[in-house]
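Sample 3 of the quickstart, ligand nickel (II) ion:
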Amino acid sequence: MLIIPGLLSREEVLHFRARLQTVPWLDGRSTALGMSADVKRNQQADAANATVRTLANTLLARYGETPTLVSAALPQRIFPPCFNRYGIGETYGLHVDGAIMRIPDTSDVMRSDVSMTLALSDTEEYDGGELVIATDFGEQRVRPRAGDAVVYPSSSLHQVTPVTRGERLAAICWIQSLVADTQLRQTLFSLDQSIQSLIDVEGVPREQLDALHHVYHNLIRQFALV
Ligand code: NI
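Result:
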């Protein structure tokens, strides 16, 4: 699990929230299939609405320009972000995201490798509504701040606990990665982050950095599915 702080600025969050107050909201179950529908109790902004589409496209563009996200997820395709909200008593019980998703209004399908939740509510505005992700090292519980994004493998079991006060607003999306294997993707991310941190260190010889870049790109070349 990775948190990307400040993916959206404070002003951007407020803009998204104001626009989302003007759009139609549907029962979240309308977009859930099978077992997910049984445990999904939330609301979803109508993806067919023009304002919602514009907001989703704005986010898509931003995601592509966020270096940490690109490095961590190595995106090949991104499912158009969906906006959801949880009022008091609403929840999304333990589930796993569908492996194959059809891109709306197309006949294209994509594989979900990486899931991302972008918080649009401040943590002081609601109680409960924790994102709980099962990992090999136990449960991770997170309540991201408005503008922060949580990135996690789509293969993990996860849930949103019931909101007990206020309202929790978020944008979620799924990413098909150039590197499907979670562990390999995480190792490549660590390598890239190490290289990026060395760039800022004074006195690191240029040739050494080039050599590391070379290794990184050759690994991508070897493992990326394009
Ligand atoms: Ni989910």
